Amino acid sequence: AQSVTQPDIHITVSEGASLELRCNYSYGATPYLFWYVQSPGQGLQLLLKYFSGDTLVQGIKGFEAEFKRSQSSFNLRKPSVHWSDAAEYFCAVGARDNQGGKLIFGQGTELSVKP
Amino acid sequence: EPEVTQTPSHQVTQMGQEVILRCVPISNHLYFYWYRQILGQKVEFLVSFYNNEISEKSEIFDDQFSVERPDGSNFTLKIRSTKLEDSAMYFCASRPGQGTGANVLTFGAGSRLTVL
Questions:
Q1: Tens digit of pLDDT for each residue in B4-49?
Q2: Touching check for A58 and chain B: CB below 8 Å?
Q3: Are B42 and A36 a contacting pair at CB < 8 A?
């Protein structure tokens, strides 16, 4: 069955510390891969995406993610977290033959940032 | 930056009542979607809509649900007779389908539905 797993429900990091949010997927073929962020009262904002090519992708707000086919993973990283990064982060996958429109989401990781 | 607009932001309704959630997708987008998130659970796909018809729907999207694009700008989700388990945040999304960002969904801020 197709699924996305974000093993960490809640993570707390100190401001200025590095961050890695984990995402693993189970899918028949390499899907399109996405990370979205949701701040309170806001919609789901795209951070970055992987379709093909370089497996290290850069996104907005200083985030990056690395696609590892052998591990079926697409972990999100940021070298230095800011207090404004506190939000919920969702990993999602979409089928290439569906052009990525129908997404399967992970359960989300809530990030708290300590001053 | 263009955005997807959803109304209302929060609606409270009695069980059995009809609810219409409204969305204004980005104007040049061709593909439209509804997703929902029950509190504490994953965001789930409900339905996709293209060229004035449903292109795909999930098993959640039963006969109680319908979608419509009545006037070329709005995209609505109707729940005919709401149940307690319909309480959720409903997200509308759209994507261009061609050109830059063809396969990237832009989501609205969501409509929270509470069924009492």
A1: 999 999 999 999 999 999 999 999 899 999 999 998 889 999 999 9
A2: no
A3: no
